[in-house]
Design goal:
By secondary structure, this protein is mainly β. It has 2 helices and 14 strands. The protein has a single domain, classed as Beta Barrel (Outer membrane phospholipase (ompla), Chain C). The strands form 2 sheets. The protein has a 12-stranded antiparallel barrel.
Length: about 290
């Protein structure tokens, strides 16, 4: 619950920052920051009473913020992005359960020069990923300690993943880029009871890996008011190059008008340290969006 409150405090704080910035006149400096913040709200409800065909009363909602800040100065391009999402769902007499929960932050620093450095650009990249609130498995107990589900399987920074890489970026087209480099990955699990789920030693709170990172980014308007964004990240640790970690995330955004959007999002995650099977997530939503900046 503390992390849920943290989400809403963060949303309010960011809104206050935005409102404060709106009173500042635009900076004519070409090297000035170019920020954007978009707030999102989506929900659905279904109710049944004496309905002969049957049905389940359902209430679901989600809130989120997508932010981006970009700057070009002295040959360096900085891009900082953040995504905060949280959603709850309630069915019939069941309590509210977490449906969506994501904190994702990333920063890239790319240098563009002349000749060779205009095609292959030196790049430093950082990324962090975790969630706000506890997550539960309602079907089984993966800890196998005798407890009956639901069993808590995640929390804030349990797990949290952090990656850093140093390499080169090839910009094939304005809408697609490929990055390759050497890097590190840290898997943090602050709660001792959950460390075995993420292959972290019980007496430590982090697992460190070094390896090769590859990252592909695609962002293009494929039809009028339809934007497809997709990222594919691969990390092959030096001690097990035959089974790289993979995360593929995609969003199809269809803009109905200035405030109404339809989104279809899916993610595929594979990490042999967590599961020998691919993890899948799919979200379809219709909701409101507001551009703060």
């Amino acid at each position: 619950m503390k992390n849920i409150l943290l989400l809403f405090v963060t949303l309010i704080s960011l809104c206050n920052v935005v409102l404060a910035q709106e009173t500042v006149p635009p900076d004519p400096d070409p090297a000035a920051w170019s920020p954007s913040i978009i707030g999102k709200l989506a929900g659905s409800q279904a109710g049944f009473q004496n309905w002969a065909e049957g049905g389940v009363n359902t209430l679901a909602f989600s809130v989120g913020l997508d932010g981006k800040a970009e700057r070009n100065s002295s040959g360096w391009q900085q891009i900082h992005e953040g995504r905060l999402t949280f959603g709850l769902v309630k069915q019939d007499t069941l309590d509210f359960r977490k449906a969506e929960d994501l904190i994702r932050l990333s920063s890239t620093f790319t240098y563009s020069g002349e000749g060779f450095l205009d095609k292959l650009k030196p790049t430093i990249a950082l990324m962090a990923r975790t969630q706000f609130a506890p997550g539960f498995n309602f079907e089984k107990n993966p800890l196998k300690d005798g407890r009956v589900p639901p069993v808590k399987v995640s929390d804030f920074l349990s797990p949290g993943t952090f990656t850093q890489s140093l390499g080169m970026t090839y910009q094939a087209k304005p809408y697609i880029s490929q990055r390759l480099g050497v890097g590190g990955k840290e898997t943090v699990v602050l709660l001792e009871d959950l460390r075995t789920l993420y292959n972290v030693e019980e007496d430590k709170n982090v697992r460190v890996e070094l390896g090769i990172e590859a990252f592909t980014n695609f962002d293009r308007e494929i039809a009028k008011n339809v934007v497809f964004k997709s990222t594919l990240g691969l990390f092959a640790a030096f001690n097990k190059p035959e089974s790289p970690d993979m995360i593929w995330e995609s969003v199809l955004n269809m803009k109905v008008n200035s405030w109404l959007n339809v989104n279809f999002e899916w993610a595929v995650l594979f990490d042999e340290d967590v599961s020998d099977k691919a993890q899948l997530k799919e979200v379809f939503s219709i909701g409101f969006s507001y551009i703060f900046i």
